[in-house]
């Protein structure tokens, strides 16, 4: 017998008979009941067969997931979905078992243990979406069991927390050894002084800047779609923004996040700073704000973090900075 659930957009009907499981949402319960009755008739008369997990590959599931749910994805999540497809794409969804998942993760040479950890989280999220949104029967428990087993053997691990700081001399060296003709070197100072994500910087348009405040649209937030934040420009960022908006340009930073990554990594390599990562600029900027005496809510307004537990991972204030602040007359 079909079941019905009241949801925000109307009524969701769920049909589950003879191994076939399907769901669909309708604006009212009457339409949901009519559809469910027709689906049950098809199943009973043999016109419908299980056509979800038994036939769909992981790559197909991830592509459908992307088409339906990618409106608020960050570039990082898009990359993780791509990596998940690289590892598991050729498998059918119903072939995802504890043994098969462990075999893929323990034999791959593509990704580190920390990346594989996020890959399995991404896979679990896609399966959850398929189960709730499409009514598919999916092997969610197999993924959970694999996560626990692989964590115990060390094949999944949290990324090591970096405490790399960027000195003023290293910042100057990055600019001095800048090689990109597409991305200007002033993105270094901009991302340190106003430590937003580089993708957020690249997405800004002229309409998003007013009176020293930028509006960040579709900000990364796992709990809210299309989040909008207003963020003040700090330090050198205000002057850089004013300079970038001269003329009739629509976007002050008209290039992709990937271009920014490439430009910074190329400059770091040319300057001999092989251990410097692009994300270290954001770490450095956040640490400088705290060292300057900024309070947590004010820093979080800039960075977009909602929880102190997450924000503190980016904070690497030194004892010398605290001592200088204590001794400061102000």
UniProtKB/TrEMBL annotation:
Family annotation (Pfam families): Phage_integrase
GO biological process: DNA integration; DNA recombination
Keywords: DNA integration, DNA recombination, DNA-binding
Protein name according to UniProt: Phage integrase family protein
PROSITE patterns per the UniProt record, alphabetical: TYR_RECOMBINASE
Gene3D superfamilies, alphabetized: 1.10.150.130, Intergrase catalytic core (1.10.443.10)
TM stretches of this protein: none
Lineage: superkingdom: Bacteria
Classification of source organism: Bacteria, Pseudomonadati, Pseudomonadota, Alphaproteobacteria, Rhodobacterales
GO terms for MF: DNA binding
């Amino acid at each position: 017998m079909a079941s019905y659930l009241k949801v925000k957009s109307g009524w969701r009907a769920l049909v589950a008979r003879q191994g076939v499981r399907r769901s669909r949402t309708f604006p009212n319960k009457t339409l949901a009941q009519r559809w469910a009755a027709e689906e049950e008739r098809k199943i009973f008369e043999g016109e419908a067969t299980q056509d979800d997990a038994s036939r769909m590959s992981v790559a197909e599931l991830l592509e459908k997931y992307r088409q339906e749910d990618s409106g608020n994805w960050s570039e990082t999540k898009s990359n993780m979905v791509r990596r998940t497809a690289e590892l598991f794409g050729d498998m059918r969804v119903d072939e995802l078992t504890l043994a098969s998942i462990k075999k893929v993760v323990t034999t791959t040479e593509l990704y580190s243990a920390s990346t594989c950890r996020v890959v399995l989280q991404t896979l679990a999220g896609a399966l959850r979406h398929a189960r709730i949104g499409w009514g598919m029967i999916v092997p969610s428990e197999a993924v959970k069991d694999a996560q626990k087993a692989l964590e115990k053997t060390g094949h999944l691990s949290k990324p090591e927390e970096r405490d790399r700081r960027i000195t003023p001399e290293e910042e100057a060296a990055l600019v001095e050894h800048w090689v990109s003709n597409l991305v200007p070197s002033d993105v270094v100072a901009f991302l340190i002084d106003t430590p937003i994500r580089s993708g957020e910087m690249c997405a800004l348009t002229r309409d998003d800047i007013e009176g020293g405040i930028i509006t960040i649209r579709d900000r990364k937030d796992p709990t809210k779609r299309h989040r909008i934040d207003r963020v003040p420009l700090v330090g050198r960022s205000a002057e850089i923004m004013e300079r970038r908006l001269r003329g009739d340009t629509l976007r002050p930073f008209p290039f992709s996040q990937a271009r920014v990554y490439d430009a910074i990594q190329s400059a770091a390599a040319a300057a001999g700073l092989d251990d410097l990562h692009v994300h270290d600029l954001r770490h450095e900027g956040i640490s400088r704000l705290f060292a300057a005496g900024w309070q947590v809510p004010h820093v979080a307004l800039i960075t977009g973090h909602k929880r102190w537990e997450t924000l503190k991972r980016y904070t690497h204030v030194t004892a010398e900075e605290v001592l200088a602040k204590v001794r400061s007359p102000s």
